[in-house]
Structures are given as structure tokens and as C-alpha cells.
Amino acid sequence: xxxxxxxxxxxxxxxxxxLIAFAQQSSVATVEVTASQKEAEVGQQVKLTVVAKDASGKxxxxxxSTYFAGPFDAATADENGVIKLHGPxxxxxxxxxxxxxxFTKITVKPASIKTVEIEALKAPLVVGGxxxxxxxxxxxxxxxxxxxx
Length: 149
Known about the structure:
The chain is mainly β. It has two domains: 26-109, Immunoglobulin-like; 115-148, no CATH class. The protein is built from one helix and twelve strands; from the N terminus they run H-E-E-E-E-E-E-E-E-E-E-E-E. It has one helix at residues 2-23, and strands spanning 30-35, 39-41, 45-53, 59-60, 66-70, 75-77, 82-85, 89-97, 100-109, 115-118, 132-137, 142-148. The strands form three sheets. Strands 1, 3, 4, 6 and 7 form a five-stranded antiparallel beta sheet that branches. The protein has a four-stranded mixed beta sheet with strand order 2-9-8-5, with no helix packed on it. A three-stranded mixed beta sheet has the order 10-12-11, with no helix packed on it. The longest helix has 22 residues, at 2-23. The protein starts with a helix and ends with a strand.
């Protein structure tokens, strides 16, 4: 008899716990994600800002559980919502809050060249002659031109 009461009490307790747990689930209805820049260059970083709202539009104080960015070969996201841009194109970045997700688009342009350095020729150039130059991108921005015969 005591075992039946104990089992019944345990079942009721577990059921009540489950009801309370489900009632306290996230109240997030929408997630708004904005990027610090809508356009950026390869090599730059963009910070995401996330605002979660309930069904009435009131801001909910929940933090993102995950940040993401893709395609994966063009961008990566860290745990602080910083998107690192690796390749040109369109990147979709976002966050998940309370099981809901939000997105934003970032247009990534190729890195612009800020400086070009040209080395002096090592031999005289004759009129009508040719000389081939090659450009090599240096990290992060300068371009240095070298010549060879």
C-alpha cells in the first residue's frame, strides 16, 4: 500500500515538475539581428546586435545561445557575435535566442588595395624593350611590385 502511494506521489510530482518546466519555456517570439556594417571588405570583422521580443513586441532579456554565419568558407562567427569575413559575396549571419532565430545579410567586397610599392629596375630598360612586373598582395594591405626578365 505504501509503495502504491509512493509511486503515485512520484508520478504526480514528476508531472507537476514537467508542467512547470514547460510553462517556464522561453517567451521569445521574434529575434531581430542587425550588423554593425551592411557592407564590408574581406578581412574585416562585423559585430552583430541581437534583440529578442515576445509576442506583444516587448523586449525579452535573453541572450543568444548561438551565433552563425555562412557560407562557411566566406565567414565565421564567434561566441560574442563577431563575424570574420574571409571571402567576397553575400553572407547570411544570425543568432538563436530561446529556440528562435534571426538573420541579417552582409555584402562582402574584395579587400581594397591601399598601397603599392614598386622596386627599382635592376637593369636598364631600352627603348622598345619590355619588362614584366608581378604584383603580390602583402598582409594586410600593401602591394609590392617586383620585376624579373
